[in-house]
Design goal:
Blueprint: H1 2-16, E1 17-22, E2 33-37, H2 44-55, E3 61-66, H3 73-81, E4 84-87, H4 94-106, E5 108-111, H5 128-137, E6 140-147, E7 164-170, H6 177-180, H7 185-204
Parallel strand pairs: 1-7, 2-5, 2-6, 3-4, 3-5
Antiparallel strand pairs: 6-7
Helix pairs in contact: 1-2, 4-5, 5-7
Length: 220
């Protein structure tokens, strides 16, 4: 079913967007990897995992999404088949947080630290709880930026607008060792998520750091 969903989203991307993806070389194999992205459209939850599956079609990938997305006819079906998990609006409870942390340790996970969709495309403040999840799991953190997805189906429209330019950028793994060293959990969590949001903003401005040469990855 993952392959079927991947094919459907790939068709959607080809028909309705002019998609540009950068930084794929920054996505490492294996688990304990956390992708943190801005959120501007329901299309985000389809396009971002689709791009990751292009590189690692067999690896374990999970994605958080608000409960309402799972009720949408097509989007919800794909999210379920792609091992998505719903998060209640207003934040996750302790049980959900522990579940997310376990998912991160065993595979790849996509989270949206703003907690809700930006209505104007501008970055919102990151949720400190996401910073705490990062601190608790110390994963490889990959910042992600997506732009243009909100224009595929503009507000007030019901049909996609073909030919819309969408850009998806994956940043280099972040070094958060300085933040991990802070003893105060609340302060450390806030600084972690602030660093992540700054990295996403830099990606939106077209700044994509390269993986160090020792990683052995070729740039696109």
């Amino acid at each position: 079913m993952i392959k079927l969903g991947r094919g459907f989203v790939g068709l959607l991307v080809r028909v309705f967007t002019r998609m540009k993806i950068s930084g794929m070389e920054n996505i490492p194999p294996g688990g304990n990897i956390l992708f943190l992205s801005n959120h501007i459209s329901a299309l985000d939850v389809l396009v971002i995992p689709w791009a990751i599956y292009l590189k690692y079609p067999e690896e374990l990938l999970r994605q958080a999404g608000k409960e309402e997305l799972f009720d949408l006819p097509v989007v919800g079906w794909i999210l379920h088949k792609w091992r998505g998990f719903p998060i209640k609006r207003g934040g996750a409870d302790r049980k959900s947080i522990r579940m997310i942390e376990e998912y991160i340790k065993e595979g790849k996970v996509i989270l949206y630290p703003e907690g809700t969709r930006s209505r104007d495309g501008r970055l919102l403040r990151g949720n400190r709880m996401v910073g705490r999840i990062v601190r608790n799991t110390t994963p490889t953190v990959i910042p992600v930026s997506i732009t243009g997805a909100d224009r595929v189906i503009p507000v007030g429209k019901t049909l996609p607008r073909p030919g819309t330019r969408v850009e998806l950028r994956f940043g280099a793994p972040m070094d958060l060792s300085g933040e991990y060293a802070i003893a105060n959990t609340k302060e450390a969590s806030q600084k972690i998520i602030d660093r992540v949001m700054m990295a996403i903003e830099e990606l939106q401005n077209g700044e994509i750091a390269e993986i160090p040469e020792k990683k052995g990855a070729a740039s696109e």
